[in-house]
Amino acid sequence: MQALETTLAAFQEHTTQLFNALNAQASLVVHDAQARDTSVAEHLAALEKLDASLGPTLAMAATHQANQARLNPLLQEVKQRDAQQRDAIAEIASMRGELQSLLQMGEAERDEMQRAEQNPLLYKDVLHYAQRLSKYTAAPPGYRLEVQNEGVQSNGPAVRLAADYNQQAARAAGYYDPAISSMAQDLPYPSDRLMRQGILYADAAADGVQPEPGQGSAPTHDTTEASTAHEPVPEALDAFAMDDDDAFDLDLNP
């Protein structure tokens, strides 16, 4: 394109000078006619040379335009590749940050495990853990056993059992863990009816046989005293009929 611009500029310059020479013919005298013809001939010869070189220059310009048309899609593809490369670099940098955080967490956990292996376990920690765990080993946090039905005949008056069926564990009855004080007393634990009607108990009830102490729930102090009273056999749970209370049906029988 630069060669074409140079050729056109020279062509324009010689054309302008040729017309200026022709316009100045009237002011020239006779003895200057030879000089006038020489100037016009020089401009004409220069224009002929420029015209001869203009053809190849135009062909070169056409080739350049064709090449430029082929380069335009390639340039767009290069821009897209550059954008993808920048996105990949940003994603890799983000992943690097996450890996570094994981590495730091792993190193911190490794240091903690090494300290735990090197330092002896204090008995105070064990006792504290056991004391906290003992509150929930017999019953869920916040669990309250329902009062016995008045229709059931028994030798003594109806009593309200403690949460873990231990008369000595009065503190555990109705206990709520401060960490989960907003949790209901039943959920996510099954109700007392579901705990007493497991698979083994349902099979025994379907056969019309009361389960033995070894097959059903473990005998306790209160259940032993009430064993002399006649208790109706509860109906077996229907395996295909479930209600909202059966959502957490668990078989707690051994």
From TrEMBL:
One of its GO terms (cellular component) is core mediator complex. Keywords: Activator, Nucleus, Transcription, Transcription regulation. One of its GO terms (molecular function) is transcription coregulator activity. It holds the Pfam family Med4. It is found in: Nucleus. The keyword Cytoplasm does not apply. Component of the Mediator complex. Component of the Mediator complex, a coactivator involved in the regulated transcription of nearly all RNA polymerase II-dependent genes. Mediator functions as a bridge to convey information from gene-specific regulatory proteins to the basal RNA polymerase II transcription machinery. Mediator is recruited to promoters by direct interactions with regulatory proteins and serves as a scaffold for the assembly of a functional preinitiation complex with RNA polymerase II and the general transcription factors. Belongs to the Mediator complex subunit 4 family. This is Mediator of RNA polymerase II transcription subunit 4. It comes from Malassezia vespertilionis. The lineage of its organism: Eukaryota, Fungi, Dikarya, Basidiomycota, Ustilaginomycotina.
